[in-house]
């Protein structure tokens, strides 16, 4: 039996505390777990603020492990706010997510901003006490808004990564068309399999043909958030191609495993379903490293010599 190790893996989608949502650990906790499992790096995400400060302090506490920051364009940063994006990028944020839980499309799917309907309803609510904002869109009239264009222009200027967040399919194509036209080559389509955006396989292929990377997330195969089966996830990867895909966890929820455990489970399941180790390495190591502009620490998936106290060469293990 082949038991996969997450050594060298890079997770592009990790949530940490503190946050209005309950999280399984803060950034230092998560970085410690990931370093202990020999992962190479994580990108720390927050729906509520830029993660620059979180990453700064975690780097000091957990030296020798790479952490990267970003900004999601929700109410905590003023929505689709070019000024906030510029300040984040000046402080070495590597990724900008278009609106997520405060997006118009998110509200359309889940019923309200800052929540996921009945999913994790006891720990996943961030309702505003007053009507302080309107859900965000990147469009105005028949095209992108001026602010959305300015945000993308800044991402291009700083050679950062654009991620599509929880936008609708129509919004995603508008964003990608403009970004590609501006020469941006680092675009992630955020969990295309999730309820928002819930992209068809054909739409995923069309976006991949524009040099976007599909980011398939473990959480969407987990019991609480499940939106697809592992077979459907595997089918999407096969259709799009591993060279145009990333696997990540979207971890941090109190009802999900710790990040390295979740990543290992996801990779293991995909491999058991038929995804080759070479393709796992492409999606979990090589493609994320290319986006971040760093050298991969490994060029292939490592196998765990011993996991859960069971050696791989144990003839009695199953």
Structural commentary:
The chain is of the alpha/beta class. It has one domain: TIM Barrel, CATH 3.20.20.140. It is built from 10 helices and 13 strands. The strands form 4 sheets. Strands 4-5-8-9-10-11 form a 6-stranded parallel β-sheet. The protein has a 3-stranded parallel β-sheet with strand order 1-2-3. It has a two-stranded antiparallel sheet with strand order 6-7. Helix 3 (82-90) packs parallel to helix 5 (146-157). The longest helix has 16 residues, at 277-292. The protein is globular, with a radius of gyration of 19 Å.
Summarize this entry quickly:
The chain has helices spanning 27-36, 52-61, 82-90, 104-110, 146-157, 169-181, 201-208, 230-240, 259-272, 277-292; strands at residues 10-15, 41-45, 66-68, 70-72, 95-97, 139-140, 143-144, 161-163, 187-190, 212-217, 245-248, 306-307, 310-311.
Question: What are the defining features of this structure?
Answer:
318 residues; alpha/beta; TIM Barrel; 6-stranded parallel beta sheet; 3-stranded parallel beta sheet; 10 helices; 14% strand; globular; disordered C terminus
